[in-house]
Every structure is written in C-alpha cells, then in structure tokens.
UniProtKB/TrEMBL annotation:
Pfam families: Not1. Residues 115-138 are annotated as: Disordered. InterPro entries: CCR4-Not_Not1_C, Not1. One of its GO terms (biological process) is nuclear-transcribed mRNA catabolic process, deadenylation-dependent decay. One of its GO terms (molecular function) is molecular adaptor activity. The gene is 6054268. Residues 18-101 form the CCR4-Not complex component Not1 C-terminal domain. Residues 115-125 have a biased composition (Low complexity). GO terms for cellular component: CCR4-NOT core complex; P-body. This is Cnot1 protein.
Length: 138
C-alpha cells in the first residue's frame, strides 16, 4: 500500500509555495482558499489558518503569496473568517489575529479615505444620472 507522502499529489504540493508573484503562487493561493471555504470541518479551516499564521508571526520579510492569501482570507466576506469560533477561542488568540491582520493590511490615511468616499459618491451620482436618462427614454 502506497502512502500519500510518496504520491504525485504530494509532489505537486511540495513543489508549490506561496512565494513571489507567478502563476504557481496564484494557483496555490486559490487552492488554499478553496480548501478553506469548502472544508466540511472547522478543524480543517483552523489548521489552514494556523499554518498561515505560523508563517506570518516570524520575522519579516514575508513571502508575497503568503501575505496575499492571508489578506484575502481575512478581508473577503465569502470566507467568513471572523465568524469562526477558533478566531475568538481566547482573548490572546483574538488579539494575535487582529495584530497580524493590522500589520498585513495597508491602513489608509484619512485623506485617502475621503478621496475614496468622494469617488464613490461621484460614481453613484453618475449612475443615478444614467438611470434617469434611461428611464426618460423608455
């Protein structure tokens, strides 16, 4: 009986890594995120998170793919990361997640936030004007 360690599947995963920007990193990042969202057990999601977090709490620099994968996991509501019990199992763990999340994500200055809000308002106004013109034509 062959073990999984010496299988073609494991050869693929051992040679792929979350490193610099390339198609292999993108594929592996998507695979990790897919496994997270499709996991039928919170234990699997916790294990994926633990591995990513262990790599992030060591000294910098962090591999690009690792950062992108973790940021996508915590920011994208599709993954419901902050709703999982393992994120809130202890105050220390929750603070650790928040600390890592804050250090990974770029914090926008107030002026950048105001500019983004103005752009969103302008886009909303433009779409409202376009909708009213379409309604007038009908």
């Amino acid at each position: 009986m062959a073990t999984i360690v010496h299988s073609a599947h494991m050869d693929i995963f051992q040679n792929l890594a979350l490193r610099y920007p390339n198609s292999h990193t993108h594929y592996f990042s998507c695979a990790i995120l897919y496994l997270f969202v499709e996991a039928n057990s919170e234990a699997i999601q916790e294990q994926i998170t633990r591995v990513l977090l262990e790599r992030l709490i060591v000294n910098r620099p962090h591999p690009w793919g690792l950062l992108i994968t973790f940021i996508e996991l915590i920011k994208n509501p599709q993954y419901k990361f902050w709703d999982h019990d393992f994120v809130h199992c202890a105050p220390e763990i929750e603070k650790l997640f928040e600390s890592v999340a804050n250090s990974c994500m770029v914090v926008k200055s107030k002026s950048q936030q105001q500019q983004q809000q103005q752009q969103q308002q302008q886009q909303q106004q433009m779409s409202n004007v376009g909708e009213s013109e379409i309604a007038e034509c009908n």
